[in-house]
Amino acid sequence: MGQTLTLRRRQSLIGWLFIVPASVLIFVFYFYPIVRALWLSFQTGVGVNLQYAGLFNYQRLLSDNVFKLSLTNVFIFLIIQVPVMLTLALILASLLNDPTLKFRGFFRTALFLPCATSLVSYAIVFRSLFALDGFVNYLLTALSIIDKPINWGGNPWTARFLIIIALTWRWTGYNMVFYLAGLQNIDTSIYEAALIDGASGVTRFTKITVPLLKPIILLTTIMSTNGTLQLFDETMNLTNGGPANATLSVSQYIYRLSFQYSPRFGYAAAISFVIFILVAILALIQMRVGDTR
Amino acid sequence: MTRRRFYRFLKYLFLFIAALLSLFPLVWMAVSATNASVDVVTGRLLPGKHLIENYRKLSQQANVKLAMVNSFRNSIVATFASLVVCSIAGYGFEIYHDKGKDFLMRLLLLSMMIPFAAIMIPLFMMVGKFGLLNTTTAFVLPTISTAFLIFLFRQSARYFPSEIIEAARLEGMSELGIFFGMYVPIMRSTYATAGIITFMNAWNNYLWPLIIMQSKDSIVMPILISNLIAGYVTDYGVVMLGVTLSVLPTIIIFLLLQNSFAEGILSSMK
Amino acid sequence: MRKNLIITLALVLVIALSGLASAVEITVWCWDPLFNIYAMEEAAKIYKEINPDVTINIVETPWDDVQTKLTTAVMAGQLNTLPDILLMQDNALIKNVTNFPGVFYDLTDSGIDFSQFADFKVRLTTVDGRNYGVPFDNGTAITALRTDILEQAGYTLEDFTDITWSEFIEMGKDILAKTGYPLLSSVSESPDHVMVTLQSARSWMFDENGNVFIANNEVLKETVEIYVELVKSGVLVQVPDWEQYIGTINRGTVAGTINGCWIIGTIVAQPDQAGKWGITNVPRLDKAPNATNYSNQGGSSWMVLNHSPNKDVAVDFLKHTFAGSVELYETILPSSGALATYLPAGDSDVYNEPHPFFGGQPIYADITEFAAKVPAVTYGVYNYEARDAVAVAISQVLAGWDINSALREAEETVKFLMGP
Fold first, then answer.
1. pLDDT-based confidence at residue C3 (cuts at 50, 70, 90)
2. What is the CATH number of the domain that holds A110?
3. CB proximity under 8 Å: B 117-176 to A
4. Measured on CA atoms in the order C162, C167, C169, C172, is the torsion positive or negative?
5. Mean predicted lDDT score pLDDT of chain C
């Protein structure tokens, strides 16, 4: 008894040694600057003229309509886009995990590539595809789905739809790669047994794939939640937050407040912390639900 | 049987359409790299004859070779350092997990939830004070350890059968020996994924090198691209060639590493 | 004897040291290799003959990146990471000088003769009566038109010169009906068009005291109304982004454009349209009291950083080149189209050359003439905030909002952003 305890202790200690280098780096390069930023969020003023003002910036947020709209926007993206994208990625991963599938390598590469594509070119392509005389409108009119071209960027909901399509296009393959790696870790004999029992493809998917991938699904959910609430590239490059701020993201607003407008770093830091707290709460809930051993 | 076939057909149709949609912008980008600027903005979809001309203009305007070398050096150093540090930590968090480590993991996860813009200025001050401006070290240091990679390896370690560890311990292997000798080879597909993602993130990192790289000699690819689109008149053929070149390394790395996705846990254990 | 030796040694040392000190490197941040960087390189060549010990080290940095790096360095208190000279967008100059006091060198008493530059441009680089920038490129607004399309509908360039907006829209509708071509295109979320029109009537989104002037600004209201009418009548088509805006010009789906004169570089990129373009001044507002046919869009100026150990050299360099060398402007104009706001350069023969792409019109002389008449306004510290808010208001009005309530909301937004 006494010996196992010391052995466990020894292992626990080794465990700490394994995690110390990474943790120290995160404390130095993330937590220390975050604490500095927290301190900044209690200061108010423009440019380098900053004074301590307590919770003033947080109060100011409550009456900031642009901030509220940007928060609403990212939540709309989160609620609609993340579930759609993750489900799609899961389905694609389980289709591609089938060893009898032909052209697996091609499909895998093709589906991954969007997230590697340069933002510059992808923004230009997407905007021209969804232009008034662009390919999408051409296709939809040719198929008689619509009778006149849609001004995608000119209307709040179609612009949001455009962002959702773009996000899904870019990030589905990215998430799929994690699922593929996860699936590789699952013993194939489980599937073989299920096949002998006559389980259908759908049953195998819901009863085996999804439960076994739970650790990775948790990872991708936290990642995507975080990524969506910090969304920047797509709204900046595709719609520039328009029309009338209907696609403005919180991060883009922070960028404007820091680098385009007369800089208000205290206020921008306060907004960052609100996002920080929101993501942390969501992640905590997700960990509670998903991080069981 | 026919129903089965129909499903098979549907499956392939679905995958082909998905692949086509995914590839289109990439193909468009590569095709545009061979066209003149006017053709690019007027939406020409056929390959043109301007590739050499575009390349000549690009190399006149920008030092592509230097930016490529810098980007490669920064990204490879960052990827290797990250994989080592984060995978050991992820393994440690899972295999030796207890209340204290679980709590620390959750705490570390918080670090990725704050926008970079909020911590950029303190980070810049640190790097400036250490006299590290314009160096690979400055580029790499804040990106080595990320909560995301640690978490990825922690979640993957969950698939690592505990019997293997027990057996190895009985054989007298050291803990570090088990990690390098057993975990690393078995988790090859996870390493491949993590490697691709980390390389890509380091390669595409824009804001951080922008503020710490002050000299001409430390230019990296994303900054070179941003230089190309900053003028009154943009040559879109040249831009498309530039972005095509900047995407190639990630594609090559993906192609090199993707075979490890095909190998399951069993095949690597045999 | 020994004394002599010491003196000799000391002299040698002094000479050696001064030799070291005179080899000065001036670092410059600017963007655009075909335009600003090219001009800077030519300036470096000219200065090399005046002061051979000075080298100019140009670090290519796009405008957005200049702003990001500048802000980060100032906020982090690390001014030594900044260059000696940087190029500043005029619409951000007052903002940066005001918010970062002491960072930029006050050029007022530097010996540079600011009366040699176009009046409106000097105004944009002046803060509280002090000069902070050496004016450089010219953003004088022009109406560029496809003369072949005008001809089809029975119009000439002359018909579009010195006209009002209502005349412009009338002819635009007629041309649209006869030829199917809209006269203009613009990027839908960008307020640039409205800004050009606003400045043409010597008005801005702030009053002389720097207070927001949006909700009750009759000129702004008229301007927005005209924009809405242009869109609704089809005389102006909105496109989602800059590439497609350029596409409408290069593809020839519009009969013209209104923008800063730097747009010429884009127009001449399409050789198929050589000889089919002409330029004239911009339409003026019908009702606004100070309406003119001249305005400005874009443009930038050189600034010297106050912390620079070589700021005297940097100033001397600018004085002998961008603020004193007609030769420099004569060199850069033909190959880059970089038009000056340095008035003595306008008398040069190079500026009076006919331009073959524009049917032999001496466009540079014309633009220089327009530049002298551009109304001077002050963009103010909160220019970007106001631009974004007005852009939102334009979208709202186009979506059917009442113009007064849209502008009122814009004013509230800007006031909030300016608040404590």
1. low
2. 1.10.3720.10
3. 117-119, 121-123, 126, 141-142, 144-148, 150-152, 155-156, 158-159, 175-176
4. negative
5. 91
